[in-house]
Write a structure and sequence with these properties.
The chain contains 19 helices and 20 strands. The protein is an alpha+beta fold. The protein folds into four domains: 111 residues, no CATH class; 118 residues, no CATH class; 121 residues, no CATH class; 230 residues, no CATH class. The protein has a nine-stranded mixed sheet with strand order 5-4-2-1-6-3-7-8-9. A six-stranded antiparallel β-barrel has the order 11-15-16-19-18-17. Strands 13-14 form a two-stranded antiparallel ribbon. The longest helix is centred in the middle third of the chain and has 22 residues.
């Protein structure tokens, strides 16, 4: 007889206890209230499908006189319990596929909302990575070795000298294989890794602590030449380490920690989920605002989940900043998501600050920067709408938002796969005295372009303003060889950017002409040679690499000669707008048939990031934008 679950209340959970290990394993499912004292129990974090298999249930547990079909991926774990003499030890376990009635959508939703309590109150969480493999024991041994090195506080140079040797090649390969296991890719395992007070990893008969695992990943991150940091498995592992370290630091240092569900969903965008609704539900317990913004409901579609979440964010914060994530997480054609709603199914690169509204001083969103970067200058803040609250209404899936048109796009620099686009006019012609028709000198234009390329910020977390003289000097000195035959002395990423941007006309002159006119002023510039390593994030080139290469933003110029940065989706004629309640300007596109606008993305517009554009009396008028 197939097992039938007894119903439970919204504040109750079931715990599994193995009873007999005979021809068939028998077990009991006991119900406990979270409002009462719970018995000691353990929680399992695992993947439902084996690494090389589809979801399957080919064996069962005997509960009373009924048979409960169990996932095949749990069979090796039960064998591991038997090998450790823990199967009949009396331990109680919470295992989601067994302890939740998966066929009851209402119960599933209720149990997901209890995840924080379930994992934080467990005596220990066991991460089951799977059975042993050819070199899994070597990987666990290497993790312990890296943990010891971490605790010795060696310098980066010493770590690389010790570990970037041929003799460690097999160890690095073993660790790479361990990080390639499916557990590291699943969205549910993120909060299961981060939240519990105690957690250990099991792989076959081997085990290792979470602390050792995190320390080993920190050491591995410094060993670039081994190639491990370029693997997807390492990125998944290191992103979990970042979230865990931040979670612990905030608990110790921050009276009111902030982990917005938006920032978590964006940072972990490359994780796998069988059910796309879980791209939000699976991170809800780890966030500090998910409980108030998102109700777990498995009876509605993914598109409806995403739309409801976006609406709830706007209503709760009176801010439109969440729509800027649709710059990166844009819905595919034919999707049920409106253009202003981020579609969290879209895969992207792991970026701590994927969009400008992720700026550190944004209390509604923020980012997952490391603990030693938690400080910031609260006065450094994009305020394109002068901190005005959003003025909006919803009409079904339409967003009606008040704001103003600042300008229109005239030209967009080229990018990989897209050529440069610009109107025939090129905004205006230059003057014979070397000044543009707007009166700006070549140096003024280069300074503006430099601000755009780094989003006017010194660091990747957008905490501090750009040091103008330092960054402008580095920008021009790095670009100057591109005007001559010495292309090889410039970073490859800058060479590619210059090739695609050089014809873009700003105030009637190509960028290349402007650079030729302006670079001579920096010939006698005194200072250290410009950094050319993208890993130094607080340098001009580090910021350029983050903005142009990782965030894939392109230089744009407006019809009034303003310079800015926008996504690859920007086109000539797009409206440059400020929406009330949005920290940064946005691009809107009007359809040919005059129907509602489409949201294109956020943009940086030099001179318009502090709200000053709204103060200019040049015919600006408020209007209500209908965005579909």
């Amino acid at each position: 007889m197939t097992y039938l679950y007894n119903p439970i209340q919204s504040n109750q959970i079931r715990l599994l206890r193995f009873l007999q290990d005979e021809t068939q394993i028998s077990a009991a499912l006991e119900i406990f209230s979270l409002d009462d004292h719970l018995p000691k129990y353990y929680t399992l974090s695992y993947t439902w499908a084996c690494d090389q298999a589809v979801l399957a249930r080919s064996w069962s547990l005997l509960i009373g006189q009924q048979q409960l079909l169990v996932l095949d991926s749990l069979k090796p774990f039960v064998q591991a319990l038997r090998a450790r003499d823990l199967l009949l030890s009396g331990r109680r376990w919470w295992i989601d596929s067994i302890c939740i009635d998966q066929g009851n959508l209402e119960e599933r939703g209720q149990q997901v909302q209890l995840m924080h309590q379930i994992y934080s109150r467990a005596a220990d969480v066991v991460v089951w990575l799977g059975d042993h493999s050819v070199n899994s024991s070597l990987a666990i041994s290497f993790i312990r070795h890296l943990d010891k090195i971490y605790l010795q506080n060696y310098s980066v140079h010493d770590i690389r000298t010790m570990l970037q040797k041929e003799e460690y090649k097999s160890q690095w390969a073993a660790l790479t294989n361990l990080l390639a296991r499916k557990w590291w890719t699943r969205v549910w395992t993120i909060q299961e890794f981060v939240m519990p007070p105690s957690l250990s990893f099991w792989c076959g008969k081997e085990d290792v602590s979470r602390v050792a695992m995190c320390n080993s990943l920190s050491v591995a991150d410094k060993c670039k030449s081994t190639g491990i940091t370029e693997t997807l498995g390492f990125r998944h592992g290191f992103s979990r380490r970042r979230a865990c370290v931040l979670y612990r630091a905030e608990q110790e240092q921050e009276p009111n920690p902030r982990r917005s569900l938006v920032s978590l969903a964006a940072y972990f965008c490359s994780s796998d989920a069988t059910d796309d609704r879980d791209r939000l539900y699976g991170l809800r317990a780890l966030s500090t605002d998910g409980g108030s913004l998102l109700e777990v409901n498995y009876s509605i579609t993914s598109e409806e989940v995403y739309t409801r979440f976006a609406k709830a964010f706007i209503q709760h914060s009176r801010s439109l900043d969440i729509i800027c994530f649709a710059s990166v997480f844009s819905a595919p054609p034919g999707s049920g998501c409106p253009s202003w709603v981020p579609d969290w199914r879209k895969r992207g690169e792991l970026l701590v600050v994927p969009v400008m509204v992720s700026q550190s001083s944004n209390t509604n969103i923020g980012n997952l920067r490391a603990p030693h970067y938690l400080d910031y200058d609260p006065s450094v803040y994009y305020t394109a709408s002068q901190q005005r609250k959003a003025e909006y209404t919803f009409r079904g899936s339409l967003l009606l938002a008040r704001g103003a048109i600042i300008d229109r796009v005239d030209g967009v620099a080229g990018s990989e796969g897209s050529g440069l686009v610009q109107s025939l006019e090129g905004n205006s012609a230059s003057s014979p005295d070397g000044l543009s028709s707007s009166g700006r000198s070549a140096t003024d234009i280069l300074r503006s372009v430099c601000r755009c390329l780094v989003l006017d910020r010194r660091d990747r977390f957008l905490r501090y303003p750009m040091p103008t003289d330092e960054f402008l000097g580095d920008f021009v000195r790095l670009c100057t060889p591109l005007l001559h035959e010495a292309h090889g002395s410039a970073p490859k990423a800058l060479q590619e950017w210059f090739h695609l941007t050089r014809p873009l006309r700003i105030d009637g002159r190509s960028f290349e002409t402007t650079l030729r006119d302006g670079h001579r002023l920096f010939a006698d510039f005194r200072g250290p040679a410009p950094n050319q390593d993208e890993f130094y994030h607080d340098s001009f080139f580090g910021r350029f690499y983050e903005t142009v290469v990782r965030m894939t933003l392109r230089l744009i110029v407006s019809r009034k000669g303003r310079v800015g940065m926008a996504s690859h989706k920007a086109r000539e004629g797009d409206f440059l707008c400020v929406l009330y309640g949005c920290s940064v300007p946005v691009l809107l596109r009007k359809s040919d048939n005059g129907l509602p606008h489409t949201f294109v993305g956020e943009c940086f517009l030099d001179g318009c990031m502090d709200g000053s554009a709204l103060e200019q009396d040049d015919g600006l008028s408020e209007e209500t934008f209908c965005i579909q």
